[in-house]
Amino acid sequence: LQSELSREIVFERSDILESKLKNGNVIHIHGSIKQEKDMLVTLNHYLECYGANSENTFPELSVFLDKVFNSKYVVLFMGYGLEEYEILEYMLS
């Protein structure tokens, strides 16, 4: 029971770390309503974060996603659309 109570919900950019990849943790990589300023909602938000010709405002996320998709972690997509190309790119590579 204690191990279930120690699970975390991570949504702040500064907390999206490899060390948070523990069983049971939930990581919101595109923000949360609790931290609206960091939410990626519009196409412009995604381009600012992932776009090749823009300043990457969150470079650690690319490193984090690379670790997640190249390891044995379970990934659950909620509210995902195939138009979110950065995720599709990781899934196909």
In short:
It is built from 4 helices and 2 strands, in the order αββααα. The protein is mostly helical and 93 residues long.
Give short descriptive properties of this protein.
93 residues; mainly alpha; globular
Give a description of the structure.
By secondary structure, this protein is mostly helical. The chain has one domain (2-92). The protein has four helices and two strands, in the order αββααα. It has helices at residues 2-5, 43-50, 59-69, 85-92, and strands at residues 9-10, 26-27. Strands 1-2 form a two-stranded parallel sheet. The longest helix is centred in the C-terminal third of the chain and has 11 residues, at 59-69. It is globular, with a radius of gyration of 14 Å. The mean pLDDT is 74. This is SIR2-like domain-containing protein. It holds the Pfam family SIR2_2.
